[in-house]
Amino acid sequence: LVTGGAGFIGGTLIRRLLRDTDIQIFNIDKLGFASDLTGIKLFLNDSPENVDKYHFVKLNLLNLEKTQQVIKKIDPDMVFHLAAESHVDRSITEPNQFVDNNVIGTLNLLESIRAHWQMLSSHRKNNFRLLHISTDEVFGSIDNKELFSEKSSYRPRSPYSASKAASDHLVQSWNHTYEIPTLITHCSNNFGPWQFPEKLIPKIIFNGYANKSIPIYGDGENIRDWIYVEDHVDALIQVIIKGEIGSSYCIGSEELKTNNQISDKIFNLLDRLNEKNSPHSKLKK
């Protein structure tokens, strides 16, 4: 089971699992504003032998009764929980929506999984895993170019990161209280194909090509670690197979860049590819 499989990272994970495994994959997604199933559909069109392995269920995890019914019907052995609101700017203007989806949605999933897990045989219980995909933003901002680690303290700085921190704590407590076999990952900033255009790198590219102003938060010196989405998926698969139950794992590439460095790198590429609008750096605001 993959929740949020119509999202950027979830869709990449599903395509990988379809390509490299023979398991039955169920994708639960409410199909919100940032959802896009195009990448999965194109993949299945190109590899029709995988069609029978993929199943989509439209579901909002805020509906507890329906979530319980769907989990019972799917009867999963592994769960990748990626369903979440993840756009920081939107969390500032719509914090309630982030608390609802990221906290209450996770609570409803955990309770549905708990009912499911209690009914499993001992063998299936021993092999069951729920991997909660979180973010390194729960640790706050990177200072002095020191990377986050599994020992970093929680310091959320936005409604988005606060809601993800809360969902982390729920997952941890369901492991300790009810012994649900859970794992948590905290990944750095992702980029790659099919990313929603509001995110930094695609926004710079789209706006640059359209000769529109490119908004950079603050002075552009915010430091993040950037990782290619396929590398993130590599790590998720390793964690759910080899991770120690109840543990959290940080995922990153050790590629610390400021927003200014990222934008300047893209501007240089755009100047070469779209000379008539160069220098693209003039669009930065």
Major sheet description = 7 strands, parallel
- Helix-strand category: alpha/beta
Number of DSSP helices?
10
Tertiary shape: globular
Question: Taking Cα atoms only, what radius of gyration do you get, to the nearest Å?
Answer: 19 Å
Q: Reading side by side through the largest sheet, how are the strands ordered?
A: 3-2-1-4-5-6-9
The total beta strand count reads 10
User: DSSP strand (E) fraction?
Assistant: 15-25%
Spans where pLDDT lies below 50 across 5 or more residues: none
Provide structural commentary:
The protein has helices at 8-20, 38-46, 64-74, 88-93, 95-118, 122-127, 159-178, 200-209, 229-242, 259-273, and strands at 2-3, 25-29, 54-58, 78-81, 129-135, 182-187, 189-191, 223-228, 248-251, 256-258. It has 285 residues and is an alpha/beta fold. The radius of gyration is 19 Å and the shape is globular. The protein starts with a strand and ends in a 12-residue tail after the last helix. The model has no long low-confidence stretch (mean pLDDT 95).
Question: Top keywords for this entry?
Answer:
285 residues, alpha/beta, 7-stranded parallel β-sheet
